[in-house]
Amino acid sequence: MIRRAFMLAPALIVVIGLFGGGLLDSLLQSLGLNPALGATTPTFQAYHDLLWGPQHRETIWTGLALSLWISIASTVISTVIAIGLALAIRAQTTGSAVWTFWFQFNLPIPHLIAAIGTLFVLAQSGLLARIAMNFGWITTPADFPLWVRDPHGIGIITAYVWKEVPFIGLIVLAALRSLSGRYEQAAQTLGANRWQRFRWILLPLIAPSVGSAALIVFAFTFGAYEIPALLGVRYPRALPVTALRFFLDADLNARAEAMALSLMITAVLLVVVFFYLRLRS
Amino acid sequence: MRFWWLLLLLLATFSVDAQTEEAPQPLPAPPGFESWQAVLDQARGTTIYWYVWGGSEAINAFIDTFYGEPLLEEYGITLERVPVVDTVDVVNLILSEQSADIIDTGGVVDLIWINGENFATLKQADMLYQDWAETIPNSVLVNWEDPAIAYDFGVPVEGDESPWSSAQLHFIYDSARMSEDQLPSNYDELTVWIEQNPGRFTYIAPGPGAFQGTRFVKQVLYHVSGGYEQWVGPWNPTLYAEWAPRLWDYLNVWETNLWRGGETYPATENELLQLFANGEVDFALTQATSGAETYISQGLIPETSRAFTLTEYAIGDYNYVAIPRNATNKAAALIVANLLLRPDRQAGHILPESGFGLGYAISLDRVNEEDRALLEASLAQLGETAADPAALAAAFAPDLAPESQSVIEQDWEANVLR
Amino acid sequence: MKYFRWIALTLMIIALILPLITFLLKAFARGWFFPQIIPRTWSLAAWERLFSPQSDLLPALLNSGIIALTVTGVALAIGFPAARVLGIGHFPGKRWILLVLLAPALVPPLAVSMGLSTQFLRLGLSGTWIGVSIAHLIPVLPYVILTLSGLFARYDLRYEEQARSLGAGSWAIFRRITLPMLWPGVIAAGLFAFLISWSQYLLTFLIGGGRVITLPILLFASTSGGDNAVIAALSLVMIAPALLVLIFASRSLEQGTIR
To answer: Which of A248, B189, B307, C150 to pair with B371, CA 20 to 30 A apart?
Structure first.
């Protein structure tokens, strides 16, 4: 027992001390508490101003809608593509290792780079637009559809999908490979077609892995800063970008709002995680 | 060519300057130091952390060689340039230090490139090293009686920051796409041009990190309200409330014919520059005295690009360096500020090759003959890619008081963007 | 169906390498304007600037490397024993401990790092590479523990018991049995740790206060400058070690992702 505690202690100290401590400090500051400056009465002013105050209300609610849209769309699209590609790679009888290598190719590429790459390829003067122009499909950059720095977050979602498909896909692939083929063969002899086999045999078996992976992607895309900061527009603006902007505001009073907003982002995530766990059990 | 700099000179010297004839009085030592020699002695062998906007590799390299080398060779100071995305981040950092009780020394920032709102914030928070700018030796070359220098966005400088260079907002166009006589010459002609060329014009969204956009909107405000004279001085909310609706109307009339139908705007100066470079829009904005050449030499825009200005309301100002109150190495910071004003450095920074290309902070009639020749020679080199300095001088307008900055940014977002 | 599969896989590869091709083109182009597909003028200017003695690139590479290696080492040292307990042992409260240790993977770094930056400022850790390294442990540790505890769950303790019965000491068992058996997984966990730290922007920015310049900080700053050649060249520099690591270790990484 003591040995166990001793082995767990360093990790717990780091996580509780740094992560918990940081979170706690954010919470205190969001409530306007700063013992160093003598502020000791908690207030929900920052939360109230964000949600109902005339200055921020619109930014926050549209931001929430946009952030939810980005995370849901990124998660759903990446999951579907990832399952499809994982199945395709599993079905490849030759060169499986090569395909798997390509599949995990962009895993180590940072999100920041994914954002820049998306910009270079999809912008109205980007690579695809240039190709379209040379084929005579468009005559000016403005003819090319608006796919990055657009108000609907298309560019942001594209970058996330590009980045997250391999992440989910590799987990799915691992789950698929750990299955024995017997259930599928049994179903096949019973006359189940390809879709039925997938829907009723494979999907239930890989669902737990897919679910965890999708949850991680959802949480990440909802709270991450880099991609919406580089590929977003001024309005509507994803919540993490707004939070950091408040934090960096020269007016230090905006700090409480920054902390409050980042905790609200966390709260939304906790609700989602809670429902996911309920759903699974 | 000579004629040009004469006019530029007129711009730089608002008020008549009678000080030059008198024997220079000995300068007081910077606060906290015995003498300038004490500053030099204390700084030797140290490292200075200078926080500078780091978005341009060209400017970064320029700073490291053009200032870093003489600092090391002549003063024994190692320059550590700290690149920042937006100066407001540094302001924030210093204020965080203040709230963590790092007040008089021990701060990480020794020197910041700063002006306007950021300066106002730090000054208000009492986090600036004070009364030093007129004590460094080369400060005698600065015309402190010029209100454009003595007031930074209307805030009195009072020796709390020292000028580095000057800038004035104007336009860039591509001479391969249109000829000079097709250019709009004032805001009403610009309105017509926008209407006739839908989707080909936009400006930078006013907001944090994009003061050029805010500045452009202020220029339109000057136009709409019939001149800048009434705006000079402290911030006048009543006057603003009176004119703001017409300003938003004016901008909203443009909107449907702007790039992307005004649904969104480029967020930074460089985003606009790239739209221009790729032919998405026909005008870019610049602050550089050296005009288009600064960007051409970096391969950022086509070689046929040229700078020009409208005949009215091209807002110009000076930019400065400030030393935080809690700076650890104030001595070295003073030396850098002094070096920035040295005539040979000034003559170099204006040139487009520097990647910097901003105007002079020192006054041509305060330097000796030799330095004057040097400064004139640099001006003469600017060439055809720069806007006509005489036209720039004639269009000069000062900036609004700093309170206007966030008001205009927020109101623009509420009334134009949404 | 077979054709469909080939089309899907080909599209995947195109989507994967298209951005990289633009990075390569842009990094060596000069004045590559719309609508040219291939740059007309080639130039090494961006590289010369990046590798000039004044450039921030080399110090940033050094910072990124030192921080990522430190974080990897510390995270493995801390995570390994914890993962062993969590992977092998069964005890009350295990679920909760696991939840606590994995929470940083779900909670956005934003919420934590803002509070942390104030604390680190008071402790004198902000603006130092040590402070940044400590902060990086937060997002790194959950992945290390997750990967390693998965390995321990399938780890056969009997080898250790046998060695012990033959008189081997704890250190010898660790050195000769545990580590070699888990080596591929440890490598995978280490790679995860390295890459997460290597690509971290927000924590470095908020804790480093602009004073600890790593590659992501440099890259983010350069995006505001608009010099695409430099942005692309920096991006390539930042991807290069990550891709090398992947190629050399793709086999152990593959094993590591099987949870």
So the answer is: B307
Res B146: pLDDT: 85
Strand partners for C240: none
A274 and A232 within one domain? yes
Is A190 inside a domain boundary? yes
Whether residues A129 and A233 share a domain: the answer is yes
Residues of A in contact with C112 (CB under 8 A): 18-19, 22-23, 26
As for how many domains chain A has, the answer is: 2
CA distances in angstroms from B52 to B83, B90, B98, B107, B175, listed in the order given: 5, 9, 20, 16, 33
Give all domains of chain C, ordered by start, each with its CATH number. Answer: 44-257 (1.10.3720.10)
DSSP tally for chain A: helices H, then strands E: 14, 0
Same domain, A68 and A200: yes
Q: Are B349 and B121 in contact (CB under 8 A)?
A: no
Q: Which domains does chain B have, with CATH numbers?
A: 18-165+318-382 (3.40.190.10), 170-316+397-417 (3.40.190.10)
Rounded to whole angstroms, how far apart are CA atoms A249 and B301? 32
Tell me if A33 sits within 8 A of A42, measured CB to CB.
yes
Asked if A256 and A156 sit in the same domain, the reply is: yes
C183 CB-contact burial (10 Å; exposed 0-12 / middle 13-18 / buried 19+)? exposed
- Which of A24, A30, A113, A176 is the best substitution to test chain C (most C C-beta atoms within 10 A)? A113
> CA Rg, chain A, in Å?
23
Residue A111 is part of a domain; what is its CATH number?
1.10.3720.10
A38 lies in which domain range? 1-43
B165 bridge partner residues: B319
The pTM for the full model equals 0.87
Give the span between the Cα atoms of B45 and A109, in whole angstroms: 41
Assess contact for B328 and B106: CB atoms under 8 A: yes
Residues A101 and A176 in one domain: yes
Do the chains contact at C221 and B85, CB–CB below 8 Å?
A: yes
In-domain check, residue A15? yes
The pLDDT tens digits for C45-84 are: 889 888 887 778 999 999 999 999 999 999 999 999 999 9
Task: Read off the pLDDT of each residue in C223-236 and give the average, rounded to a whole number.
Answer: 88
Residue A43's φ and ψ, nearest 5 degrees, are: -145, 145
Residues whose CB is less than 8 angstroms from the CB of residue B127 and which lie 6 or more positions away in sequence, other chains included: B94, B95, B98, B324, B325, B326
Which stretches of chain A drop beneath a pLDDT of 70?
34-38
Shared domain check, A148 and A83: yes
Q: Please indicate whether, in this complex, the C-beta atoms of A19 and C107 are within 8 angstroms of each other.
A: yes
In this structure, the answer to whether residues A20 and A64 fall within a common structural domain is no
The total of other beta-carbon atoms located within 10 Å of residue C16's CB is: 17
Is B21's pLDDT higher than 50?
Answer: no
pLDDT tens digits, B247-300: 999 999 999 999 989 988 998 888 899 999 989 999 999 998 888 988 898 888
Average pLDDT on C134-163 reads 89
Contact between residue A233 and residue B262 where contact means Cβ atoms under 8 Å apart: no
